[in-house]
Please model this.
Amino acid sequence: MHQDFAQRTQSQSTESKQSKLAMPGMASFARGTRLKILTWGLPGILMLCLIAVLLFRSESDARTYLSGKPHEEWLSVMPVSAALPPLAPQRTILEQGDNSISALQRLGFDRTQAALIVDASKPVFSLHDVRAGHMFERRDNASSVEIHYTVDGLHRLHLVRNENEAWRAEMLISSVSGRQIIISGSIEDSLFLAAAKAGLDDRTAMNLVDIFSWDVDFSRDLRQGDSFKVVCDEMFDEQGKVVGTTIQAAEFINQGKVFRAIRFMADADHADYFSPDGKSMRKTYLKSPVKYSRISSRFSTARKHPVLGYTRAHRGVDYASPSGTPIRTIGEGRIIFAGWKGGYGRLVEIQHINHAHSTRYGHMRKIAKGITKGARVHQGQTIGYVGMSGVATGPHLHFEFRVRGQAVNPLTVRHTPAEPVPTGKMEAFNSISGQMVRQLDASPMMLAWE
Ligand SMILES: [Zn+2]
Model:
């Protein structure tokens, strides 16, 4: 099935079964009651007949009962069949511009009921965020009504209303199967092309870039021969379609320098990436002010305009990117300038947490919304878009790192890592890290399967 993917090895398989819907049982109480009447025997029946005579005072009825024969009417006072078989499920698929309320109305709920359903699901999933092509299903059972909404390949919203009760909502997770794979590749002219060739989808390739975005400047520093290796969990739905991947460990070799990252849950609900010795991959500053994307990924030796690095004369680093490419702040801080400044054109300057540090981003085509003097920004936030305002020969970002107002070479600035693995978790981390490092060390570069 994955034979078309070169350099891909399957190392282990895992199966995880999760919550499955339990159908409510059907009530059947009539039979038991009927048997009880039969076991009362003749004296009991006579008693009942006497009561009947007293109640009905009908001569003809009395005669029949006094003859001692059991009467069918008496035996069938209790309903014999209380539960009807459930109706076939009804389904409706959302169309473009459709919404939950109208979809639910198509399934036979009135507007009020539909609104109640939307309300009830709120704590679990917002039915305002439904998408065209996704399906609603209604199932009517003996004493309950159920609704299912397919959120994605893995998640299904389930609502149930029992008799005289309110709607209850829960998220069901489909049974998925997963396996761990190791994918490796080397870069010829674009990371995304290399990733695709190795069988790594765009989203996972982007996650790989994000993991190393504090160490590698993917916009400027990628070179032919750079390589990557990813230990990745792949999840499949019941149809065998890949529904998600999680990078457990990764390696990136940039210009001969090796970077490795291990995924670890440093607290109960949050996973992060650490170097094999437990230091955080996150640092005070991102390596690049331009987010690396599929569009800007291809590097070329023939540039339309000179792209300069830091020199005494230039005092900044230029990023040649298509006009309109988002520019992000490399670190948290506060805007101290946003507007036009001579040769810089549209410029944004940010003062960082370390107040001696500031960064400048020039030649913008447009400054992003909300980026005004005094505004706070978080690391990675988009502050504007690449352009050629001011003195520029082509669209590019002019980026400066300043220490106490003096432009310095960004490469000389120390990037302090975020919190390492907590001491109490170091033993658990070392065990995972050791295992992952062995995987990264051992994984062979496989030849393509025929
Ligand atoms: Zn420049």
